[in-house]
Amino acid sequence: MTNETIFVDKAIIPQHLNFNNFAIAWTKGNFAVYFFNSAIYTVCVVLGIVLIASLAAFAFSRLKFPGKDIIFYMFVAAMMIPLPGSFVALFVLMNKLHLTNTRFGYILCMINVGLSMSILLLKTFFDKMPRELEDAARIDGCGKISIWWHVALPLARPAIAVIVIFNSLSVWNEYILATLLLGDSQLMPLQRGLMVFQGANSTDYPVLMAGLTMAAIPIIVVYLCMQKHIVKGLSSGSVVG
Amino acid sequence: MNSKAKAQAIFKDNLQSFFFILPAFAIFCVFYIYPFLNMIFLSFHEWRGIGPMHFIGLQNYKELMGDNLWWDSMVHAGYITLIALTFQNALAFALALACDREIRMKRFYRVVFFIPPVLSEVVVGLVWNWILNPEMQNGQNIGFLNHLLYTSGFPQMVHNWLGDPKTALTVIAIVHSWKGFGWGFIMLLAGLQTIDKQFYEAAKVDGANAWETFTNVTIPMMLPVITVVVILTILGSMQVFVLILSMVNEGLVNHTDVPVTRILSSMTETNRFGYACAEAVIFGMILVGVSFIMKKLSDKVKQA
Questions:
Q1: In terms of CB atoms within 10 Å, which of A12, A171, A176, B199 comes out highest?
Q2: Are the beta carbons of A63 and B17 separated by less than 8 Å?
């Protein structure tokens, strides 16, 4: 569709499809860059969360050290207490650390956003996991790290799938931190890019719709493929919570 | 000697274990605890983001108490929440009840209803921004809704839906409910499926009709799930703002302000970081208070 036909076509199915808009969005609308950035952020944040959260959850579930309970309850409390407008203080912090307009800074912030929930979910999973395999590994002389890597992580695959999906959705869809922390259009993810494009070309709807489609399709595909895990994650949350 | 070596081994073991949580703990302290404390600290100061910081005690909070724009925004969020609680949750519950029965294409509905929640607020907001666009171009309505109203014979209903303070919030609340009902639907359906079918059979044997079964079996059994859904709806709806930012594009208009957009504009438009933090602290306390009251209420109902 073009800008003329979007309003003239009264047929529900447009008579002629025009994939040109995707090309325009991809090149002139800078959406290639936005898309690439979103992909980088999602992959890095999710990888970081899985590693960091599984290490911590494994320790909270299996290892003994002083202060364990207090630290764990801090994470639980962080998940329960709503912090609206925490972006103000985060923005101040990132300015102080000179991490605004860096990929690294945004990735760290987003890892923090998903961390508590992921630790809690993984810890619950580890708690229910049988210990026999770990004991066998220990007798064979495995250290804690190799038990985590070779035994606990592979067994936790169902829980990790839930974490990967939920965090991918939340990073891909994140808007406000991207807006405050990333002013450089070469670093912006898709959600931010869409708003910038809309602000600059308020009535170029066909190209905007092409951009929206690009932002929505990967999420819908992931959702349709992983639908079972999402329902499982949600319902376990509602029954436990 | 032996006990010293033992103590050392325990210390080493503890240290090793602590390294497992160190990355998580470090990120948590820097990006959660510190900003949290700093937010409270800043709320007692007048600060423009750069330059000197002035301690002004409770001045920000005092000003906030008399700030009409702020309390209006709170009323707006409350209105959106009210619609989400009634309209959105009733819809979610009704659909969950329907899908709990043996109906055709059950799985299809389960998949489809959860598509709006997985889409981002920006995508949903911008699509509705187009649908509700009030402008005209070449004698045609740009917005799909107005176009539809015009061509299907209701030209008198063509309206600036988001520009009119009377309709804006309702429209936003409906879009928000449309985006969000899938969450409640999935959670309530999961809850319904955990109810033992024996209870329904027992009710049937006792001669209960459908309504009595619903109020005496379904509702009490579902109370924990309903409580979670209600609390999540309140927290989610009170804090909605990206949807509003993307739906209303002509900058921030006061009649669609909600608390988070107030915080945002205190920070980015007037550069009053201290005031923004005071707003965030008050709003956070209100949210914690509301969810605490909801939890207490449901505990009381459970006991009765």
A1: A171
A2: yes
Of B20, B123, B225, the CB nearest to A212: B123
Q: pLDDT tens, B140-180?
A: 777 888 888 888 877 777 788 888 888 889 999 999 999 99
| Contact residues on chain B for A104, CB-CB shorter than 8 A | none
Kindly indicate the confidence band of residue B14, based on its pLDDT and cuts at 50, 70 and 90.
Answer: confident
What region does B138 belong to: left with phi over 0, alpha with psi -120 to 50, or beta? left
From the CA atom positions of chain B, what is the Rg in Å? 26
Residue whose structure tokens are 């459970």:
B302
Amino acid A16: pLDDT: 57
Helix axis angle for B121-131 and A205-225, nearest 10°, is 140
Question: Minimal Cα distance from A214: which residue of B?
Answer: B123
Average pLDDT of the segment spanning B117-132: 90
Measured distance CA(B110)–CA(B106) in Å, rounded: 6
Closest CA to B287 of B58, B39, B49, B74: B74
For B27, name the nearest residue in chain A, comparing CA atoms only: A112
Residues of B in contact with A111 (CB under 8 A): 27
Locus of tokens 């925490």: A86
Q: How far apart are CA B60 and CA B276, in angstroms?
A: 9
In B212-266, DSSP assigns E strands to none
Q: What are phi and psi of B214, to 5 degrees?
A: -60, -50
A81–B277 CB contact, under 8 Å: no
Q: A78 to chain B, minimum CA–CA distance in Å?
A: 8
Pairs across A and B, CB distance < 8 A: 216
Distance CA A119, CA A26 (A): 37
Phi and psi based region of residue B195 (left: phi greater than 0; alpha: psi -120 to 50; beta: remaining): beta
Distance CA B259, CA A84 (A): 9
Q: Min CA distance, B170 vs chain A (Å)? A: 23
pLDDT tens per residue, range A60-86: 998 888 888 999 999 988 888 878 888
Distance between CA atoms of residues A14 and A46, nearest Å? 39
Element (H, E) at B223: helix B219-238
Domains of chain B are 67-303 (1.10.3720.10)
Q: Which residues of A touch B235 (CB under 8 A)?
A: 82
Domain locations in chain A?
Answer: 5-240
Question: How many Cα neighbours within 13 Å face the side chain of A153?
Answer: 14
Alpha carbon of B102: minimum distance to chain A alpha carbons (Å): 19
The answer to whether B270 faces chain A, any CB pair under 8 Å, is: no
Distance from CA of B89 to the nearest CA of A (A): 15
What homologous superfamily is domain A5-240 in, according to CATH?
MetI-like (1.10.3720.10)
In the numeric block, which tokens belong to residue B92? 């979610």
Across the interface, whether the CB atoms of B31 and A227 are under 8 A apart is answered no
Instruction: Give me the residues paired with residue B136 across strands.
Output: B141
